[in-house]
Design brief:
The complex is a heterodimer of chains A (455) and B (468). Chain A has 5 helices and 24 strands. Chain A has 455 residues and is mainly beta. Chain A has a domain of 266 residues: Cupredoxins -  blue copper proteins (Immunoglobulin-like). The longest helix of chain A has 11 residues. In chain B, helix 3 crosses helix 6. Classes of the chains: A mainly beta (455), B alpha+beta (468).
Amino acid sequence: MKRRDFLVASGSVLPALAITRAMANSGHVHTNQGEPTAGRRDPQGYMPVQTPNGWTLPHRMVDGVKEFHLVAEEIEHEFAPGSRAKCWGYNGTSPGPTLEAVEGDKVRIFVTNRLPEHTSIHWHGLILPSGMDGVSGLTQPAIQPGDTFVYEFTLQQHGTHMYHPHADEMVQLAMGMMGMFIIHPRDGEPEHIDRDYAILLHNWAMHPGTSRPDPAVMVEFDLWTMNSKVFPAIDSLVAGSGERVRIRLGNLSMWNHPIHLHGVQFLVTGSDGGRWPREQWRSEVTEIIGVGQMRDIEFVGVPGDWAFHCHMAHHTMNPMGHEIPNTLGVNQDGVEEKIRTLLPRYMAMGEHGMGEHQDHTDSGHMTGPPNTLPMMMGEGQFGNIEMGGMFTVVKVRDGLAAGDFRDPGWYRHPEGEVARRVSADPDYGQPARRGKLAGPNSSDLPVPKRQGHQH
Amino acid sequence: MKYSDCARRIGLALVLVSLAACVSQPPDHGAEQAQAALLARGLDTSLQQDQFAGELSRQQAVQAAVLNHPSVRAEYARLNIAAADVVRASELLNPRLSLSWLDVSGGSNELTLGLAQSLAAVMLRPARQRIAAADYELATLALADNLQELALATESAWYALVAAEQGLQVQARASDTALWADELGSRFAAAGNMAPLQRAELARSAAEARLELLDAERQRDQARARLEQQLALHHEDWSVPTTLPLPATDAPDPEQLVAQALDAHPALQTLAWERRRLLSVGDNARRESWLDEAEVGVEHERSGEERATGPELAFRLPLWHRNAGTRLALAAELELLEAREASLRGQLPRRLRLQLGELSRLREALEVRERLLLPALAAEVEARQDRVNFMLDGVFNLLGSKQSELRAWRDHVATLAEYWQQQVELADTAGRAATPAGEGLLDVSAVAPPESNSQAPEQQEQHHGRHH
């Protein structure tokens, strides 16, 4: 029996809860990869940031100075199983490890360049001496391959910030060199945060079939990532019911991203300028993160599985062609069979939409280019999720222990709280309908007359 | 010895000579000799008559031509003419009998009776026989050469038709890709998804593909007509395979081929026989200068009661000319022969090396296509299909890639056809009567499988119309 047939058949006889439980235990792998933080407050009073799919760089205190050591180097990075690339990052990963400190801290950051070319690091949004701003040629000599530079300054602000190269920036950003720099307020938060997530948005020209990002691309990108991962490899954001959750978002891609969270009205509480005064907080369900900008959003966890994604539809897709023929409404019957006599793997797709595509790619009989992810991926407890790119799930559960960042699996919906089928008849009910309905007898597009001017 | 005894003996001698001049048998070894010569050049013409129906192999096609072509009958007739010339050369002129009756004033009369035989005919007979024999040998060689020419022309026509059939098979599928793209284009346009410009581009490509197919069909028809003319069969129930043979792995050694050609090329053999003939003609001319119109005979006269009998000898005095012009012309012809032979010996190695070089280039082109181009295009089609699978590319690009691949295969067939035509030319230059056998066949069924029976009725009708 096909999976879809199974779903239909089982849906007709089992209550939603039973299906949910069955699917929740049916062997889905839910594994968050990010290095879990402690889940308890630091001695300096802040709740450590959790970087999905990432990690926080440890520091050491030397004479009252927090010392960090970043290494710029070439890495092997996996966007999701099935797509790996040679990228550039810091300390072995992209994004580089999150730097975390407290307003007023004095930091000393060593930067070793193991890249084949010079680099520098710009501390995006930080107030610091001009010579520490990291613009090679302008404020400092470039860090040559093999050299180690040191940056040293006192943190005069708090908020969500980023770091990235300011040398051959087009290449080095395109190759994945970036990281988050989180500065907690010295005087604590007006609302205590229980879970604090940091996500860096980016885009990659990882052309299908290749294994190295193309830095020359400015518009047509292939992968849209959260912390350099695409769905379904992006960690779920886990929270307990009633916990206050903050998601810090930075955008080092070349597009703006309207980030949308389902299930709650979140508050936008901060930006590039740090945490806003409470009176400036505003309630939203979608917040645009502009290029080079940061935003903090906060909400109180409501039980469930809640989609969290960019609302640019093609940013929630993995690689796809942007200029392919539009097959919607195209009947290829007869021609398809003829084409198969020469191209046995050809399969007409998309007459009724692209929803079927994931079935074909997941089943493996429609193989794609090497090292390339299908356009739509991910399977949930009710079927294909048909997403990619900047999409993940906020998973809120009751009774979750602090510091437990493990993926809890699919949400077990209470009985009667899952949308269900009431009829298979399209003429069901008496819905109000307006306008001109399209059908086989719909008129053609108007054709302009070409008789020329009549005098 | 009395004159009468002498005359009697001369008369007897004339009779004996006349008897000796009896007709010799015409030679009949020419056909076998030509057959043996062709066998040595790689062509066996001793095969039995075949039905020559159904699919004809290259050898069968050549056999049919050698057995049926009208020119072969003419060639054998020419050989028979040469054989008749041998007989003619052995024949002596008949003796001349002369009678005269004179009324002498006074009532008497004189009777003169003479019998004469051309001495030249007797003395020059061996030389003329040698010339005729040489002519016969030359006719035999000409027969072999003409049969060789016929065989190679048939091979050339056979290769051309096989190539045209195989090229048509590939072209049909290449054209299909454009026709399908056009058909899909109409569906896309009907769905409101295709702009007029792209629709027109697809329609143009489809029309061009139809023209390419028509051209391939025309070439096939022309090639069939050409081979049909060579085969000279009285029915049309014949065909040829649709797969060209692949080149043999071993290429001929140029130096060995040149050495063989210089040693035993038919043209050189012909020149040798022409030289031999000219020497005989020269010998004959030398004798003719002395013996031209010489006659011996016996004459008997009766005048009244007197009788007189005596021998007669008549010949021209070689005072004013001694066939000097003829001898000079012969010397010049010998010079011409030597010049032709020198030219041939000089040209043969150059032409052979040039053709071998051409053959080598064609083999290299085939290898490059086989090892590099065709796999690359197949990989392009596969990669394109992968991209289509993942919505990275569209069906029109996929069909375009397939069309490019099939066109490369069509060019591959054309290059292979050119290779075999070059082999035919090389055989002709080297004095061989057949091309070497290939190793394996060019299989296009994987990339251009025969059209399936599952096509729509209108498509089937369309294709049937194209292929017949």
